[in-house]
Structure formats: structure tokens, C-alpha cells
Amino acid sequence: MQTESSGSKPAPQNSAPKSTEQSLYEKREKIYPREVHGRFAILRTLSVVVLLGLFFILPWLEMGGRQVILFDLPARKFHVFWLTFWPQDFLLLAFLLMLGAFSLFFFTALAGRLWCGYACPQTVWTEVYLWIERKVEGSRIKQMRLDKADWSLNKIVRKSIKHFIWLFIAGATAVTYVSYFTPEIVLTQKLFSFQLGGWELFWIAFFTLATYINAGFMREQVCKYMCPYARFQSAMFDNDTLIISYDEKRGEPRGSRRSDVHKDYKKESLGDCINCTMCVQVCPTGIDIRDGLQYECIGCSACIDVCDDVMDKMSYPKGLIRYTTQHAIDGEPSNILRPRIFIYFIILILFTSLFIFYVSQRSSIGLDIIRDRNQLYRETSGLIENIYTLKLINKDEQDRTFDIKAEGIDDLILLVDKTTILVEAGTVYDLPVRLRAKEDNLSGRSTEIRFILSVSDDDDLSVTEVGKFLGPIQ
After folding, report:
1. Residue 213 sits in the same domain as residue 260
2. Contact indicator for 469, 446 with CB cutoff of 8 Å
3. Are 62 and 207 contained in the same domain?
């Protein structure tokens, strides 16, 4: 409702009341991160080169006549260097997931978002796309001017070159990703002969589009709004976690100045911060680190490098923005190597040891038991019969001859076409079997039985699996 003050003119009777509309969603403004140099920038560049190098090179390397890393879904086998994992090795996946989780806890509790700043795929590919943008369109200022300028031949050419390179990298990324599931040599031949399958085409198109959009356009939006890690990272922080922070006590009150004029800036009640906003200009998520720790900060350390460079030029001590702890900022003693760090580290060592032990002790043969689901049992010749399908798994690199037998019930009869079976290297053999037993020898509605699979030429190599033999209610 509008109120009329005594000194104001009355509103016309026929005028409509004014309404104010405000959008609930803020329109995204493109961020133009300034290029930065320094020790953390070198580490970040090194991380990008190593990770991208491994990603693109590994599919082309072979070991033992096959790709060093290949997730062969049709054959249900995962090849990782000299190891081959089967669906029966599901426990190893659980170990790997727990290792990943506790590694994240450990490094986050120790030094914040190291993963986000240096190893996250979104960060790595965005760094590459930003580098290409700088090479094609120029520095931060030139990019801003180009985007504001009217369309011209120069703008069209530069934008076209940039997007062509972006799409090329996105396509190479997608093809490389799919090559971890379809051998790279086979995939490349199919690609250039236009014989790609439907699923291969779908995933190549999907990851091309995802890489192009995420790294080229969404960028920090993925980190701020799509990544769940940004939301729960605070649960792993405490006052002794190393974080990138602005030293407010030293920097405030901030104010612009010249080093040759304001030599006695302390007498002018000024802090070390010259309010150059360089820390904001280099931030890939567009935040001001001087406002304190924010969930948008990915820990890339670009603000540390650029602030140290400014401090050098002003002949001030470095470290106005630095890795520190909340306790140190508050003037209290810090304890970086605290109990929770040691606990996370011990758990990491424990799970790593268990993983190595399980891999070293796992058998090169396997046996799965599948009961016939069409009927629980049947009576034949005065005996109770159960039908099974045994999956004989040869995880070895050479052919194996297996022997199969069953026990657990007195006078148990094993009916099978052959008890000695040749299973080729790296394959699974389906063997239908029937078990017959006297009803009087059954211990109840369900009786435990054991199938024993052994290698004919190696008495020490065998595996036993437990199954159920069903009969009538006694």
C-alpha cells in the first residue's frame, strides 16, 4: 500500500499502481579468469599434463597382447594392467570405493579441496579450454572487448576457430573414453570406416556434447550447483584444516596506493591489501577470497600466486593470501597432524593392505551355482532329483582341465555328461548337472551340499562352493 507524505503531490486518480518484479534466479555473467603464474600454477599445469597424458595414452598401450586398461562388458571382464577382474571379484570393487571415500576424507581434512583444484576432470578440461580461449582470443581484457564488440569478420573467425578446437578436443575425449570399453584399435578402425555401432555412436555423441558444454560454457556452474562435494565439504573441515585464506588482520583496511608514494602506508592506517582485485580476476569461480571461506572456492590457489606477485612488486612480505588454518588466523596454535588425520591414514593403509592381500590370494578359477528355477525338485526312480547349472570360470591365461564332484549327502549321485571339462583361458563354461539322493538321507526341507571344482594337473588348485538340495517336507 502506498502512503502519501504531506509534502508530496497526490497521485493521479486514474494512474495504475506500480509493481516491482524481481527474478528469483540470478543471470549468469561470464567469468574471464586472468592468466596467472607461480608455483601453484606450475603444479596445476603439471597435474593437467600428467592426467590428460595418462587418459589419452593408456588406451594405446598393450600388455600381454591386450589393452592395458579395458572394461570388456560383453565378456564381463575388467583388465587393469596385469590383473583381470571378474564379476565374482565384487569385493574388490567395494575395497576400491572405500579407498576412494577415505582418500577424499583424508585429503579434504588435511588440505581442503585438493581434488577439486588439481585433479577433478571438470577442472582439468576447463583449464585446457581456458588455455585455448586465451591463445585464440587473447588476454582477459581482449576477450571481454571481443565479446562486447559488434559481429565482424575478425570476431567470427576467432570464435569459429575456438569452438572448432573445443569440439575437436571434446570429440577426442569422447572417443578415448569409449576406447576403455571397446579396444582403441578396433574403435578407430570402425570410426574411420563408418561402421560404429549404435551404442558406440550414442556414447561418443553424449560425451562430446557433455565435454563441450561443461568445460566450454558451464564451467564454474558445475562446481557451484551440480557437484555435491561443494555442499558437504564443510563436514570434513575443522579449525586445523589447511585452507586458502586472506589475512584480514594484516590486509585491512585495504586501499589503493603507489609503492613509490605511500611508503609509510602504516601511518596512513592502511593494511597490506592494495585493493587491486587481482585475486578476484584470477578466480575461476569469480569469488572474492577476502570475503572469507566460501563453498564456491575450489582450492586452485591462483589467488595465492597472483597476490604473492603483487606483494613482491610492492616490496611487502608474501602470504597475505596463503594456505593456513582457522586457528592460525585467530592467533591460536594449529595442529595439522591431528588424531583424525592419523585415523584416516591408518584406515587407508588398512584397506590398501586388504586389497593387495585379496588380489594376491584370489584363486585363478571360480565356480558359480545356479539352481533350476522351473521346479524345486522332482522324484525319479524313487530318488529326489535337483537340477543345477554350474559356471566353471577359468581366470587364468592358459587353458585348464577341470574335475567336478559333489558331496554333503550320503550316497549322493552326480549325473553329468562329463566330469572332466576343458575350459579355455579367460572363459566361462556352463555345465548342466543333476543330483539325486534318497529321501531318507536328507536332513530336512533343505540340505546343504558342496560342489568341488579342481584342476586335473594341479591338486592344490581347487575351489568349493556351497549349494542347497531341496526335497519334500518331512
Report:
1. no
2. yes
3. yes
Domain count, the chain: 3
Other C-beta atoms closer than 10 Å to the C-beta of 246 total: 24
Q: Would residue 394 count as lying in a domain?
A: yes
Q: Are the C-beta atoms of residues 242 and 110 closer than 8 Å to each other?
A: yes
Q: Could you please report the per-residue DSSP string of 130-142?
A: HHHHHHHH-SHHH
Rounded to the nearest angstrom, the gap between the alpha carbon of residue 4 and the centroid of all alpha carbons in its chain is 61
The pLDDT mean for the chain works out to 86
Residues contacting 384, CB < 8 A, separation 6+: 377, 378, 436, 437, 438, 439, 442, 469, 471, 472
Cis peptide before 183 (omega within 30 of 0): no
244 near 296, Cβ under 8 Å? Answer: no
Are residues 454 and 424 located together in one domain of the fold? yes
Residue matched to cell numbers 524481481: 22
Residue 153 sits in which domain range?
39-234
Are residues 289 and 300 in contact, defined by beta-carbon separation less than 8 angstroms? no
> For 436-448, what is the mean pLDDT?
87
Tell me if 5 is assigned to some domain: no
Strands 77-80 and 83-85, sheet pairing: antiparallel
Note whether 200 and 246 are same-domain residues: no
| Cα 156 to Cα 161: distance, rounded to the nearest angstrom | 9
The DSSP annotation for 161-212 comes to: HHHHHHHHHHHHHHHHHHTTTS-HHHHHHHHHTT---HHHHHHHHHHHHHHH
Residue 111, C-alpha cell as written in the block: 588440505
- Summarised one tens digit per residue, pLDDT across range 111-163 is 888 888 899 999 999 999 999 999 999 999 999 999 999 999 999 999 999 99
Of 234, 255, 276, the domain-final residue: 234
Cα–Cα nearest to 233, from 293, 276, 172, 313: 293
Helix, strand or coil for residue 342? helix
Asked whether 244 and 322 are in contact (CB, 8 A), the reply is yes
446 and 456 together in one domain: yes
SS3 354: helix
pLDDT the model gives residue 2: 40
String of b and e for 135-158 (b: at least 16 CB within 10 Å)? ebbeebeebeebeeeeeeeeeeeb
Q: How far apart are the first and last CA of the chain?
A: 85
